[in-house]
């Protein structure tokens, strides 16, 4: 997943160096034979956990983030300790407490200096948008709503005189495209975003080519939007690009490898959660002596229907075949939910049987969440390119689930298509970890 801020990469490098150094000085004497493995495990787990916590994304730091940083490092070191117990000969607990303190303090100091640098030293990046129409205003509003980016829209360029006369935005139109050289120089522009809906003619392109000096970065509006919002800006052109990206050989290989890993992880999850699922099954059965499982037809890859399995959490006589709790939030005091099953829903224990759908090849661990057949058909008729989200297997969780618990269908599509465009195994792992963390914290819908 691409990022715009170099600070993201800087923090990843700093955290990796700090963690590797702390692991080296902690374990060089007591575990010299396994030192490289220990350094690798600790560094990888810390980076994955802090990424799952959102520390490698542009953000405005608050005092609350101090706790979140500490929590992430504690969890990461604990998980590292679980992997390293066979290597540490009983010293794990004391040493890991020491490591938590050092890694946390170093990471906190680095971020404190960054906050001070960003506030008092780092200049704001000035942005010029070519095109003052709907797309231009849309990306301008998106940038203004994200102060963590440290960017300012200085104005628009537009050759449409009608647009200039009817301009109602708080952001001014600074001139025509042949004015670009002067406008860029006068406003110290760092980034130019091309937000023109139709293809530009040769005269406009020549004006921009002459007017944009070296060193000024130029972005297409859909690409820039995807980088800052982590959603796909959906147009006919971006869908065409998505198709060509989808059929690239690297994604074909990725799909085969992912299927194997999906089945392995599904088996591991079923084994690890077996004690919990046994308790859940007994509790459901004795709550009203009805069936333990509930299945519902959902739409899978390329529009193929399948039966998605869940634990039944509502009273038998209250179950609605058309109910979709991926779309409709169930309140904590909903009378349809059996009292025993409230904790099952809160921590998504009811979704564990979907591991069998994954083993059967109907679902994946990570992907767009499957919807009911009637929802799929309705959205296909009303929302352009809705069918494109079924180019991949639906997921137990997905990019939308870790970003927005209650999106409208159009927003869901933006997240899902962004996932399809950028999918890779490392990112799948990060999404899965983020989802598990949200479940354990009770923050998932």
Percent in helix:
40-55%
Structural class: alpha/beta
Low-confidence stretches: none
**What is the count of helical runs?**
17
Shape: globular
Number of structurally distinct domains? 3
Secondary-structure element string:
HHHHEHEHEHEHEHHHHEEHHEHEHH
Mean pLDDT: 86
Strand content: 5-15%
State Rg.
25 Å
The largest beta-sheet arranges its strands as: 3-2-1-4-5
Task: Explain how this protein is built.
The protein has 445 residues and is α/β, with parallel strands linked by helices. It has 3 domains: 6-120, no CATH class; 125-229, Rossmann fold (3-Layer(aba) Sandwich), CATH 3.40.50.720; 245-440, no CATH class. It is 53% helix and 10% strand. The chain is built from 17 helices and 9 strands. It has helices at residues 6-27, 35-52, 64-88, 92-120, 134-144, 161-165, 180-186, 202-211, 221-229, 236-246, 249-272, 274-288, 342-346, 354-359, 373-382, 409-422, 425-440; strands at 125-130, 151-157, 173-175, 191-194, 217-220, 293-299, 305-311, 364-366, 395-397. The strands form 3 sheets. It has a 5-stranded parallel β-sheet with strand order 3-2-1-4-5, sandwiched between helices. A two-stranded antiparallel sheet has the order 6-7. Helix 5 (134-144) links the parallel strand 1 (125-130) and strand 2 (151-157). Helix 1 (6-27) runs antiparallel to helix 4 (92-120), helix 2 packs across helix 17 (425-440) and helix 7 packs parallel to helix 8. The longest helix has 29 residues, at 92-120. It is globular, with a radius of gyration of 25 Å. The mean pLDDT is 86.
């Amino acid at each position: 997943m691409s990022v715009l801020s170099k600070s993201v990469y800087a923090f990843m490098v700093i955290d990796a160096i700090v963690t590797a150094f702390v692991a080296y000085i902690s374990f060089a004497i007591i575990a010299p034979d396994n030192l490289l493995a220990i350094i690798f495990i600790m560094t990888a787990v810390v980076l994955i956990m802090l990424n799952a916590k959102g520390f490698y994304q542009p953000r405005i730091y608050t005092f609350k983030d101090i706790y979140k940083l500490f929590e992430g490092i504690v969890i990461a070191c604990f998980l590292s300790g679980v992997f390293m117990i066979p290597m540490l000969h009983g010293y794990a607990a004391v040493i890991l407490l020491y490591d938590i303190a050092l890694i946390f303090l170093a990471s906190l100091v680095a971020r404190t200096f960054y906050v001070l640098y960003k506030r008092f030293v780092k200049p704001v990046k000035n942005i010029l948008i070519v095109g003052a129409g709907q797309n231009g205003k849309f990306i301008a509003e998106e940038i203004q709503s994200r102060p963590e980016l440290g960017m300012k829209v200085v104005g628009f360029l537009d050759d449409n005189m009608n647009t200039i006369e009817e301009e109602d935005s708080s952001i001014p139109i600074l001139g025509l495209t042949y004015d670009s050289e002067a406008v860029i120089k006068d406003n110290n522009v760092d980034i130019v975003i091309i937000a023109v809906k139709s293809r530009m003619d040769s005269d406009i392109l020549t004006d921009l080519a002459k007017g944009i000096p070296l060193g000024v970065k130029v972005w297409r509006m859909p690409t820039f939007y995807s980088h800052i919002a982590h959603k796909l800006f959906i147009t006919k052109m971006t869908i065409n690009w998505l198709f060509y990206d989808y059929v690239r050989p690297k994604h074909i290989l990725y799909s085969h490898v992912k299927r194997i890993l999906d089945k392995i992880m599904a088996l591991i999850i079923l084994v690890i959660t077996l004690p919990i699922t046994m308790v859940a099954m007994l509790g459901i059965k004795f709550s009203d002596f009805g069936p333990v499982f509930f299945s519902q037809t959902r739409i899978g890859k390329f529009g193929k229907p399948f039966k998605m399995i869940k634990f039944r959490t509502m009273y038998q006589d209250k179950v609605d075949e058309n109910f979709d709790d991926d779309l409709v939030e169930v309140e904590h005091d909903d009378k349809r939910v059996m009292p025993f099953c409230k904790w099952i829903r809160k921590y998504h224990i009811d979704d564990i049987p979907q591991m069998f759908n994954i083993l059967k090849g109907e679902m994946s661990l990570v992907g767009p969440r499957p919807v009911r057949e009637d929802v799929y058909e309705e959205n296909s008729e009303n929302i352009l390119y809705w069918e494109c989200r079924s180019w991949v297997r639906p997921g137990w969780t997905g990019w939308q689930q870790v970003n927005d618990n209650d999106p409208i269908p159009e927003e869901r599509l933006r997240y899902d298509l962004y996932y399809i465009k950028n999918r890779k195994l490392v990112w799948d792992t990060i999404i899965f970890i983020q989802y598990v963390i949200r479940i354990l914290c009770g923050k998932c819908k």
